[in-house]
Amino acid sequence: MIEVAQKRCQSQHIRFVVDGIWPKLLIIFVIGISLKETCAEQVGPTQSDQVRKIPLQTRGTGPKTTLFQALPSSETGLDFMPQFPQEAPFRLLTDQAAGCGICIGDFDLDGNPDVYLTHYDRGNRLYRNMGDWRFVDVTDQAGVGGKGRWCAGAVFTDIDNDGDLDLFVCAFNAPNLLYINEGQGRFRERARDHGLDFSGASVMMTFADYDLDGDMDGYLVTHRLNTGRMAKLPKSSKEAFQRGLIQVNPQRQASIGPRYRELFETMSKGPGRVELFIAGQRDYLYRNDGSGRFTVVNDPAGITGNHIGLAATWWDYNEDGFPDLYVSNDYRGPDQLWHNNGNGTFRDVANTALPYLPWSSMGADLGDIDNDGHTDFFAADMRGSTAARRKTSLDDMRKDKWFLEFARPRQSRRNMLYRNTGTGRLMEIAHLTGLAATDWTWTPKFGDYDNDGRIDLFIANGMTRDFMNLDASTTGPSARDDHWQSTPIHKERNFAFRNLGDYQFSDVSRSWGLNHLGVSFAAATGDMDRDGDLDLLVTHFDEPLSVYENRSQTGHAILVRLHGTKSNHWGIGSRVILKTCSNLQAQQLVSTRGFISANEPIVHFGFGTEDDIDNLTVHWPSGQIQILNHLEVDHLYEITESPSPVKTVDRPLEDKPAIPWFRRISLSEKIVHVERPYDDFESQPLLPKRLSRLGPGMAWGDIDGDGDDDLYLGGAAGDAGKLYRHDQNHELHKVNIQIFAEDDEYEDMAPLLFDADGDSDLDLFVVSGGVEYPPNDERLRDRLYWNMGQGRFIRADEGVLPDLRDAGSVAAASDFDRDGDLDLFIGARVVPGAYPLSASSRLLRNEQGRFIDVTHDEAKPLEKAGMVTSALWTDVDGNGWPDLLLTVEWGSIRFLRNDRGVFKDETVSSGLAQQTGWWNGIQGRDLDGDRDIDYVITNLGWNTPYQATVSQPEVLFYGTLPEVRDPLILEAFHEDNQLSFRRGRTCILRAMPYLVPRFPSYGSFAKSSVVDTFDETALSKLSRYQVNTSASCVLMNEGKDGFSFRPLPRIAQAAPAHGIVLVDFNADGLTDICLAQNFYHAQPEIGPLAGGVGQLLSNQGGGQFDSIPAKVSGLSVWQDARSLSVTDLNDDGWPDLFFGVNDGEIAAFENAGSHLNHMLNVHLQGPQGNPTAIGAYVTLTLSDGTRQSAEIYAGGGYLSQNTSTLTFGMGAIPAGGRIAVRWPNGRTSNTVVAPGQNMVSLVQGEFPKE
Known about the structure:
Layout: E1 3-9, E2 38-43, H1 47-50, E3 51-55, E4 68-70, H2 73-76, E5 102-105, E6 114-117, E7 125-131, E8 134-137, H3 139-142, E9 151-157, E10 166-175, E11 177-183, E12 186-189, E13 199-208, E14 217-222, H4 237-242, E15 246-248, E16 254-256, E17 264-270, E18 273-278, E19 284-288, E20 294-296, H5 298-301, E21 308-314, E22 325-330, E23 336-340, E24 346-348, H6 350-353, E25 357-358, E26 364-367, E27 376-379, H7 387-393, H8 397-406, E28 411-412, E29 416-420, E30 426-428, H9 430-433, E31 441-447, E32 456-461, H10 470-475, H11 481-485, E33 492-493, E34 495-501, E35 504-507, E36 517-518, E37 520-526, E38 535-540, E39 543-550, E40 556-563, E41 575-580, E42 584-588, E43 597-598, E44 603-608, E45 612-619, E46 625-632, E47 635-640, E48 648-650, E49 662-665, E50 698-701, E51 710-713, E52 722-726, E53 732-735, H12 738-742, E54 748-754, E55 763-768, E56 783-789, E57 792-795, E58 808-814, E59 823-828, E60 842-847, E61 850-853, H13 855-858, E62 867-874, E63 883-892, E64 894-899, E65 902-905, E66 916-918, E67 921-925, ...
Parallel strand pairs: 5-43, 25-28, 40-47, 50-85, 82-89
Antiparallel strand pairs: 1-2, 1-46, 2-48, 3-47, 4-39, 5-6, 6-7, 7-8, 9-10, 10-11, 10-13, 11-12, 13-14, 14-19, 15-16, 17-18, 19-20, 21-22, 22-23, 23-24, 26-27, 27-29, 29-30, 31-32, 32-34, 33-36, 34-35, 37-38, 38-39, 40-44, 41-42, 41-45, 45-46, 49-81, 50-51, 51-52, 52-53, 54-55, 55-56, 56-57, ...
């Protein structure tokens, strides 16, 4: 018996929980904003009234060689063979008009999905599915041929809401076609009657009920009409003004002249400069007035832009029930994400919801790739799948560098896979999944092709000519058709990627039988034989239609066919969520997906070996929620939306929404880091990234002795560092310090608050760094400011610090010689203009407030430590003497063991030398309860083009070649057993012009390796750096056995990580991890690496961590985050988080605390010279024997200093325990913690040594 329940919330501002714990009861209550809101609920009628269950056909069990079998037309009757007309203008081969469209739908309602195909101007074809893979051409009887019109995309949809599928067909430079289904297999063309007969560069219409009034509205994507000479770009500014193409208003703002607004557009390149580039016609948003008459509503709806469109996909990205729209635009016109405001208007949120966009966007598709209940999105581009292809088709940096750096939203030539976080801000993870580069991709097509419960991806590739080939476009007259007419068709293989789970996809193109070589444009899925697996149809250029029968023999499945009553009849736009005992799946029912492609309007779910469905929930466009419990697998379910009235019931208190771990707060004053423009690449053109964008650092400490932590935020060159006092109202207020303002030309890196002069207040030390100034510049000197009390600071006298003028990075303080005062480590980052060289890092001994450089005598390995990014004073071996761990870019983590004040390099003996990376930060705490300190180290992550492994490391050469005067950088990577250039030909030749004769073409460059290009003797004289891992890791301290590396969860590798905080945020007794992510300033060919939103990881015990979704953590920091620190701003006993953002506002998050668990705060007071007990080692042992250990640091993470107060989770039962402290001088103390106690304050010296 199928149980059905419907619920409808009375507020439009309702969100539905689809993850977490699913109740076993029939009634599932809707979670909203307020506990006092009410939801409607009613147990519906019996199965026969609303649900029809039909068994699926039995799949074959015979032998099969591939998952898909291509069926010949002689068996199927699908004899569609497109041929491009020889007499047609060649320009139609250069863009969207070269493809033939496809759509699938059951137009005659006999239960078998039928097929419609467009065929240039020779007549389209409609094939009726007779069952058993036999199709009959019924085009003429149906009256849907469209002969004489050059047709593109087509889609079956129920325009008049009468229950059967009508047919809309786009035509190029001719009126579009609307065929109304009159039943009995016949259609009547009525586009003009319905207001849909637009004539222009139509590509595709996509339908949805965007205003939720129960009928289908539409969005028409358009491309570009070539109108002869008017469409040609001018050769000069003078010509542009003479033609009236550009006009300037009295405010000297440039715009396109009226006659040209559907041909060109402009983009600002800075004050007084614009770039002109080609554009397209405007798209059209059509509103259905309920009678089937459509009206263009672009202006009142807020739809703007005239880009070169290729696809549009309805996608409710924020899951509020109102369909949003993603528009894919070619060339430099940005993709648009139109957020549905719910009142008939839209706004483009691409720049705030998405990290960046494809440059030349093609087709797109949506689906839940990670089974978290949120719908993700794939947008295709044309990035080559091999290094050779990329080197012949990548952008010419001479012309396009400005665009890659300054276009807003940012664009990059590669596919984008947007992971939906459920917060309104999406991650981008194409590189992480291996889906960033799939060649010239037209149509991506998600579907669970192997019925294992995870959606896979098919890719249709190729092009009529290789218009992206830089040699062909530069050696011949690219504007002339006869040049391209003589070049061959650009055939590429299609791809199929199997979803392995955990954001990994495997290329199964060959084993699935889908690696067709040709030019494939459109693709559509449907279960053509109703056996429960998805079949696939693909159109090609000048080749017959490919019909792929899915011959899977395993994996249960269901199909869902929706019948709307209050909603549109086919339920388009519905969200269907399915839960089994071990899996969660979600789909949005959208037909138009990909390029000129439309799927069967039906929902398919695969289950693998699971044979029972807990429940299936339909969120109808009308707002109705319909729940089916305990369904059988291997059936088609036809579900009818209940028209019954509903009654409201109160929500029970236990069903209130889960409280996120953190909530973002607005500080009383905006705290902002400001960069000024600087071109790092001017002095080193092959630099991998900008080194002027490494801050800000931040430090917390009680500078005024009032018992709470104050904040110093480092400044950039030209913007002074800022000090903020923490007042009794838990607010931060800026303190104007004259000396800080005078030092505004310094580039602050790591700030540090510690007692430098032994007067028991906190002084301020700031590392100076950056690359804006030449080596040995005065502005590279580090600074020490004395605390004069009451928040006043003055510059320390000359001679207090050695006169060191290196571009530094990090500072960390500790009493390394245990003489009672705090000494300093200062890390060297880079020699300005000479990356990857660095100066010596330094060890400064504190001698009564003067700091003496003792590096050579006490810590000689620091002289060649490399490009140090972070440092941590930590007692690795537990002997009471602080050791030093360093993270290094292009190197290994360095371990300097403290042998009673003298340091020995034990990097190799500890096993740390085996892993080399682009390490950014390090933080320590006991993560597995064994009383030694473990570490988390941040790295570049896996979501980048850099895919370093032990067997195929990334390589960087540096030095001088005989033919080049200045030292140069050369990045290389391994592919196909050779070392290839990381950078493109344009950039390489700019740096090494003597290679121009060797590489006269892009093709010659693509075929060459680094070893082929340079003499072995010359290469051997260059410095060589290697990286074999890019993973951010947990570094487990195994005692005498050294360290073991454990990569953090895969999703935590979605962006470069810098800052780290290790704290038990939810007080469950286990230390959690928080990461600050993103880096927006990699070199232009790579583009921004900013797919993350910050990451919270929950400790599951034994040093194992699970990622916490952003919707649950409450953290969403998509900006360019660097430092990350923790303090208790509101004095509630729970640690709060602060993200330092490069060139942006600090992001502050308040810990929501836990109603179940209890937190213990431990505050230590050390002696004069070390008042915050830096270096103390604290262990909490609870009454059940479990232990937690932590050290007090001054400096760590990335350019960060946390509060010196330690927090320990006590768990749900307020049991007591014991605090053991090993103080910085080696003495120990033990203190009893009473049950329920939440604060322990200890003073060094009040306890006898044990």
